[in-house]
Amino acid sequence: MTLTNRLRSFFTRTTSLPAPTATIEAPLTRVVSQPPGLREQSSSEPLPLVLSPFLTRTDPLPTWLADEESLRDEGVLFGLSDARPDGKLAQIRAYFGQQSAPLDEQIEQHTEKIGELNLFIEQRENRIITLRNQISDLHDTQPVSNNLVRHVVSLALSVVLCIGNFYLIDETLRPVFANRWIAVGVFIAGMFNLFGRTSFFYETDTRLTGRRLVEELSLPLATAIFVLVQALHSQAVGQAIGLFVFVFFLFLLAGKLVLSTLTSLQTDVSGIQSNHRLTINKLQNLPRWEADIERLSQEIDSIRAQKWPIVTTLNHLQAEMTRLNTQRDGLVNLFISEFELARSLRNRLTEQQRKSMMNYE
Questions:
Q1: Residue 51 burial (10 A CB sphere; 0-12, 13-18, 19+)
Q2: Fewer CB within 10 A of the terminal residue: the chain, N end or C end?
């Protein structure tokens, strides 16, 4: 007969005990609310203590933790004595802590490995996103349009216009100045506006100041007046005035027209070079980037194939850890329930009965 059954038998034979109190009637684990201290007959049969496989591979269980009945008896003995249950509970928790320590280590290792593999997958996925964006941008980039032919013709006409202006000045000055270099100097002075960075004739929203007017109009105007004065010596007044107006506006506009055309030509050349690079990129980079995406996708699949067995093992380890913790909590609760039951009934036993039970083997 186990110690628990003996404690039960004491109260079934005792008829002079006082009426049970509410505290005794409250069920603690397997206690029923009929005769105090009594249990259902079927519950007196010992239940096997199912242990984790991890428990059987380490140190053997203590004798009092080998099965449920031994644990119940231990709880009753501590409940009948003045001892506190903290030490036994600490032993139960410490024992199961030893069993779960390898599991904790394996769970940590598998979690770190899964985190490392997830990092590798994330790095490759980010690289794939970057490559796809580059491919999309390259596909969306269209060749830059240009007006190379138009600007070349415009530049040629502008140069011819300037050359014609020079010969017009040269013919006008020849009767007075036989040296052609004088005509060259006058022409260059009139074309001084060619070397300016900007011109208010070709700009919008530009504030016009007196200084800027002098800067852009002074030399062309002075040169045109000089040609007018020399033309009056050999030409009619009306012809000389017409020559003055014509030369003055050629000086103002022709130089800036040449500069504007040269700038447009430079833009066209840059656009042609950009289109050439774009064509080369589409021919070379697109196949290479697509091959990189395919390779990275295969690497991701390979890493995931390595990851899933580890995830499955981790799930099993976590399930085993949960089972160990549940078993530990069940044993702790069983010991506490028996301890509290015996502690609540201790004062209802005689000294002889307590000694008899405490000397139970």
A1: middle
A2: C
pTM of the model: 0.54
- Give 171-204 pLDDT, tens digit per residue: 888 887 878 888 888 887 777 665 555 555 555 5
CB-count exposure of residue 138 (10 Å: 0-12, 13-18, 19+):
middle
Contact of 17 with 353, CB cutoff 8 Å: no
Report residue 290 as tokens.
């697509």
Interatomic CA distance for residues 229 and 241, integer angstroms: 10
Give whole-number Cα distances, 248 to 74, 177, 258, 294, in Å. 122, 20, 16, 68
Q: Which amino acid is at 88?
A: K
Give the whole-number percent of the chain exceeding pLDDT 70: 72
Per-residue pLDDT tens over the stretch 288-304: 999 999 999 999 999 99
- Cβ 199 vs Cβ 220: under 8 Å: no
- Look at phi and psi of residue 141 and say left if phi exceeds 0, alpha if psi is from -120 to 50, else beta: beta
3-state secondary structure 232-298: CCCCCHHHHHHHHHHHHHHHHHHHHHHHHHHHHHHHHHHHHHHHHHHHHHHHHHHHHHHHHHHHHHH
Q: Which two tokens stand for residue 241?
A: 């005035």
Burial class (CB in 10 A: 0-12, 13-18, 19+), 319: exposed
Answer yes or no: are the C-beta atoms of 349 and 342 closer than 8 Å.
Answer: no
